[in-house]
């Protein structure tokens, strides 16, 4: 580790000191199950090879990942701040899970479809969803403003695990259509306990559905640690359903990319599902309503800081000369602009039209509901001009 | 009176609904070692609303169980525990998350006593924070009471105040039948004095909480406060509303309601749940059947619209409020 630091020529990297000094992952305790963990970029920012997961990634893509993760992290910080200021009802932070989400999101092709939980803002970003369309959900304006079909990105699902069955069914449709696309279902470690998630895996296996289950094991389901959900590493559950399970370093964007690409490719080729366990950590609270000091120790969070997904890529990019100070500055400036756009776009977001709640309940509006809507409008109108008539 | 009695410590404390539930659970656990709490995040965290705060610390992990994240699992294992002689008290984190457990509740919990010819009772409490008004995202503001009230074998109650919260949870736990215990989440922080040595009234009874002559207004859970506010506002306009806190949804206790409606001749039922086939429909039918000749106006219902609970920016438009109750009162008076 110190050798790495010595090799770095301070003069060359100018003000990038923080990138490699201290070395991000130096002293990070090793992750459990090391032999099983697919890693292509160590916490120290060293590139590794893995026999099963050769990675073909351009320099441009590598810089792109840095940009993606930095922008998404800034969005996340801005959203947390906006919630604190009363501009959002709640926010579910992705802090610490950027690599898992961007690696998985970028492994998708345009024609693929993803089924997120409520925390996949990084995947939303990768799918080209406007952050404001996510903010509108957390502001209480709608249930997500994007077009799920156009984006290949389902609406967020809050009922834990339900989307895994939808993804599987969607994949069964894809399989019938034979268009060579694949489906990516997101879930958390807690979700693996839900009956519906297990049913999804049974169906996926039984029909060789082209679906990949991407589980972000961020170690907690709100306050409940992983051990309450599973006595075995989660990726080993897959074997019981009859398909492969892989554990990947979820803070290593390259490994996540490689593993997810491979799994999606296998799905496309008719080899059926894969379960990916992205081993990561929820750096923040469960949501802005949560107080994690009640159930976990600060030391644990400190340990995981050393495995930060962005710092390790930054170290790699700068050390290998793939990016210079100007690049990092540009990304910072872009992040500032994004944050400003998210802030103004959120606070200026118009409230929904009250009658909207009646309008899309059914594909064919029913006479009773139309009548109720009319009554509602008349009632609301009775308040206009002050005194309730 | 003996000196001892005079010096007895005060037993009246001002409590929030949340704290009253916490103390009620604590007392039930002290009284009966068979009481076991099950739920997501109820142990170390004390529940997302902190209703079980401190209970795991004091009663241990075997009696306050942080379960895996699976509601069918929670309810299904609660059935087994109940068969084994335990009294499971289940916390469902939010109303919208009871549905993965719906199968267990309606096909197993509700029917066990009947299908075993009374041999296997199901003394179980299913606590559900319910209703809206907290600015939450989807599935955190539902009012699912009608599903449960529609299911024979379940008892369903909704508390509206700290006194009923404190006693009601203990009575529900002592009840030999499964009780769906609905907690008005947006009122968790409402306070009132609770006399913890009083003798509580029955759990399955409704109660007149404000006397009046012109219109009978019925509510339960979070809407009781709204009904009382409406009654206060109506008074300033010279209208006198009688407010009944139904308290029990299944079985219904409508005798006090009939008595009231026979005097007022007018009845308005208020709940957050959608009006269509909600509790108001059942109550309107019964009041009409029983008090037909006393009625001056049809029984009117104020409830949620027949739409999915809307995004929080629209919940004030969706939820019945003081104005909508008064509007119904006006219409009832206009007949
Ligand atoms: C069916 C259901 N039960 C309970 C909840 C409440 N809840 C929201 S998030 C959460 C924990 C989820 O943990 P995990 O699957 O690990 O995902 P993470 O939040 O860590 O991303 C719970 C219990 C819910 N949303 N849905
Ligand atoms: Mg988790």
From TrEMBL, chain A:
Keyword annotations from UniProtKB, A to Z: Oxidoreductase, Pyruvate, Thiamine pyrophosphate
Q: Which residues form the Dehydrogenase E1 component domain?
A: 67-336
The entry lists its GO molecular-function terms as:
magnesium ion binding; oxidoreductase activity, acting on the aldehyde or oxo group of donors, disulfide as acceptor
Biological process terms in GO annotation: branched-chain amino acid catabolic process
Q: Which cofactor names does the annotation list?
A: thiamine diphosphate
Q: Which InterPro entries match?
A: Alpha-ketoacid_DH_E1_comp, DH_E1, PdhA/BkdA, THDP-binding
NCBIfam families from the UniProt entry: PDH_E1_alph_x (TIGR03181)
Stated name of the protein: Pyruvate dehydrogenase E1 component alpha subunit
* Native species: Blastococcus aurantiacus
Automatic annotation (TrEMBL), chain B:
Domain of life, per UniProt, equals Bacteria
Task: Please give the Pfam families that the UniProt record associates with this protein.
Answer: Transket_pyr (PF02779), Transketolase_C (PF02780)
What cofactors does the UniProt entry give for this protein?
thiamine diphosphate
**By its UniProt entry, which InterPro entries does this protein fall under?**
THDP-binding (IPR029061), Transketo_C/PFOR_II (IPR009014), Transketolase-like_Pyr-bd (IPR005475), Transketolase_C (IPR033248)
Keyword entries, A-Z: Oxidoreductase, Pyruvate, Thiamine pyrophosphate
Residues in domain Transketolase-like pyrimidine-binding? 15-190
Q: Does the keyword Oxidoreductase apply?
A: yes
Q: Which SMART domains match?
A: Transket_pyr (SM00861)
Kindly list the GO molecular function terms attached to this UniProt entry.
magnesium ion binding; oxidoreductase activity
* Name recorded for this polypeptide: Pyruvate dehydrogenase E1 component beta subunit
Taxonomic classification: Bacteria, Bacillati, Actinomycetota, Actinomycetes, Geodermatophilales
């Amino acid at each position: 580790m110190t050798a790495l630091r010595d090799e770095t020529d301070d003069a060359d990297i100018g003000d990038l000191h923080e990138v490699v000094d201290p070395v991000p992952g130096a002293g990070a305790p090793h992750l459990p199950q090391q032999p099983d963990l697919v890693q292509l970029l160590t916490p120290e920012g060293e590139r590794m090879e893995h026999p099963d997961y050769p990675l073909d990634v351009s320099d441009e893509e590598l810089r792109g990942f840095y940009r993606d993760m930095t922008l998404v992290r800034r969005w996340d910080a801005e959203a947390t701040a906006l919630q604190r200021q009363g501009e959002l009802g709640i926010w579910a932070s992705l802090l610490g899970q950027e690599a898992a989400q961007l690696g998985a999101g970028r492994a998708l092709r345009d024609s693929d479809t993803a089924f997120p939980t409520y925390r996949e803002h990084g995947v939303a970003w990768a799918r080209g969803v406007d952050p404001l369309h996510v903010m509108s959900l957390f502001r209480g304006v709608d249930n997500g403003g994007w077009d799920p079909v156009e984006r290949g990105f389902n609406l967020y699902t809050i009922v834990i695990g339900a989307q895994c069955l939808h993804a599987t069914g969607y994949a069964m449709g894809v399989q019938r259509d034979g268009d060579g696309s694949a489906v990516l279902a997101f879930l958390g470690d807690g979700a693996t306990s839900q009956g519906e998630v297990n049913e999804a895996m049974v169906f996926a296996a039984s029909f060789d559905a082209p679906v990949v289950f991407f589980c972000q094991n961020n170690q907690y389901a709100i306050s409940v640690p992983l051990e309450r959900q599973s006595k075995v590493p989660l990726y080993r559950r897959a074997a019981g359903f009859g398909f492969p399970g892989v554990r990947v370093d979820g803070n290593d964007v390259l490994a996540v990319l490689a593993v997810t690409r491979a799994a999606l490719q296998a799905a496309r080729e008719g080899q059926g599902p894969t379960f990916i366990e992205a081993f990561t950590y929820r750096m923040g609270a469960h949501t802005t309503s949560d107080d994690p000091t009640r159930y976990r120790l600060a030391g644990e969070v400190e340990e995981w800081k050393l495995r930060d997904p962005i710092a390790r890529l930054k170290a790699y990019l700068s050390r290998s000369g793939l990016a210079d100070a100007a690049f990092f500055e540009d990304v910072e400036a872009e992040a500032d602009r994004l944050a400003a756009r998210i802030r103004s776009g959120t606070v200026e977001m118009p409230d929904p039209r009250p009658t909207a709640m009646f309008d899309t309940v059914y594909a064919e509006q029913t006479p009773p509901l139309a009548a109720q809507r009319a009554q509602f409008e008349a009632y609301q109108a009775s308040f206009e001009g002050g005194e309730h008539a | 009176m003996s000196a001892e009695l005079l010096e007895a410590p005060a037993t009246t404390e001002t409590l929030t609904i949340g704290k009253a539930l916490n103390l009620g659970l604590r007392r039930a656990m002290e009284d009966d070692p068979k009481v076991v709490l099950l739920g997501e995040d109820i142990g170390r965290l004390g529940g997302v609303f902190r209703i079980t705060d401190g209970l795991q610390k004091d009663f241990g992990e075997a009696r306050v169980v942080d379960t895996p994240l699976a509601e069918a699992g929670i309810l299904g294992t609660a059935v087994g525990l109940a068969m084994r002689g335990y009294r499971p008290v289940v916390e469902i984190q939010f109303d919208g998350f009871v549905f993965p457990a719906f199968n267990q509740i309606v096909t197993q919990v509700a029917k066990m006593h009947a299908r075993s010819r009374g041999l296997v009772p199901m003394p179980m409490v299913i606590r559900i924070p319910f209703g809206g008004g907290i600015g939450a995202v989807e599935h955190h503001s539902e009012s699912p009471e009608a599903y449960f009230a529609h299911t024979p074998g379940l008892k369903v109650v909704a508390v509206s105040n700290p006194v009923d919260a404190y006693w009601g949870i203990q009575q529900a736990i002592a009840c030999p039948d499964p009780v769906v215990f609905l907690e008005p989440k947006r009122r968790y922080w409402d306070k009132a004095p609770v006399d913890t040595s009083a003798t509580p009234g029955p759990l399955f009874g409704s109660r007149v909480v404000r006397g009046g002559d012109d219109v009978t207004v019925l509510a339960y859970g979070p809407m009781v406060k709204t009904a009382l506010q409406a009654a206060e506002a109506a008074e300033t306009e010279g209208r006198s509303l009688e407010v009944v806190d139904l308290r029990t949804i299944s079985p219904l206790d409508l005798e006090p309601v009939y008595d009231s409606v026979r005097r007022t001749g007018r009845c308005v039922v208020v709940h957050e749940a959608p009006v269509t086939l909600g509790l108001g429909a059942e109550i309107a039918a019964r009041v009409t059947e029983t008090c037909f000749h006393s009625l001056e106006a049809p029984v009117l219902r104020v409830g949620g619209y027949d739409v999915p609970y809307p995004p929080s920016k629209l919940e004030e438009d969706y939820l019945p409020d003081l104005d909508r109750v008064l509007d119904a009162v006006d219409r009832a008076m206009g007949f």
